[in-house]
Amino acid sequence: MQKIYVFLSILCITCQPPESRLNSKLKGHWLAVKREDTTKDTIQFDPNEPPPPPAPPGGIPLYDELFFYSDDSLERYSLRDYWINQLSYRHDSMLIFITQWRFFRITAGHQLQVFESDTTQWQTKGDINLVRDTLILKDKDWVTKYIQLRRLGKTDFDEIILNHQDAMVLVQLCRLLFVR
Amino acid sequence: MSIIIRSIGVFFIMPKNTLKSRGYIREKLPERLFEAIWFRFANSKIEDLKSRYMASHTDDEEVEVSFVKDNKVIKSIYDYGHASPHVFVSAYTYLMNRIDNLTDLQKSSQALFQSVSFNYYLTHSKIGHSLLRSESFWLWSKLLKAKIIKKLPAQSKLNYILEKNKDWVEIIDKNGNIQNRPLEYYTLILSDGNQYKVKNKTLSDGRFFKIETLEGKTLLLDIGINIFTAKIVNRPLEYPYIPL
To answer: Cis omega before residue A50 (within 30°)?
Structure first.
């Protein structure tokens, strides 16, 4: 009986549950955008903010893992597994399509954290501001895509004028049909 | 759709063309929406954009965007078929979608907005080219606010001929058939509140405009700024290519 207890206790000690995304300590260092006190047109940079990481050599993605935190869930995507196809700004929130069927939505309350895998260069933390801190999708080639965070500077214009014209040929065709 | 968004005062201007009133709507933009629109355009790096983008297919929509700084056009972009960089496309698509969704505009009929056309053709020293529709709309909005003066200043020389493309109207003839005919005039509601039917051809020097009405009256307008800057006047002849 004692042998069975010893065997079971050794078994319990040695066979720990596999490391999962919920119980493991997150490795590496993460990169995020810090929200600053901003005025309407200018964005003041934090002088204590560490410099950005060096530019990656050609063809290698800058960040290979992407973590999205919200209040109740933790999502983890690896850019090696899923290519980010599309970035949409059409609504208040931002949609990122990982594949054709999987996408997730970021709203202003979410924290976006991008982890670097093998470097220990610097750490910052903060919420993403969808208006001023913008995600830019960059295409290196047909296969590799990566995400970079960029902060907007002062605008050098004070009026935007837009004129939009529909496809005139189609409009004319429809008109002819209705007239006939 | 034609729209102006101004950072000073944070408002937008849209043309209004209904049976009761013709002019423009000027309304306040929500602060947060303004920021979202503004910084999306700032993100698109307008200084790196080309002035013209053409897709290789046909039957698509065209978008013209102009940026103004200190009452001068600093950049105008013509985009046919969403051929410009996706950051810029997403900026103006966002703007168009959000303005469509504003509740105040949903009350009024949006279909009638399209009947206001903005297409001015500029001729100076035997060289002519058409203004972009966004620039034409900007000029039209300035004309509506212009001061009506009685006499031109002595130093002003009206060397430029500004001609608006003729509007087409549907007329039912005696046989009951619908015919499209060009109009020799267009309607302006000036700052005195009166509605004028003015001829398409106008003399100007960029700031002062000499406009003739159908009744034979001559109107002298002062818009306060010189609109024909080097960016507009010294434009290459082939620009913009608008398929007619």
So the answer is: no
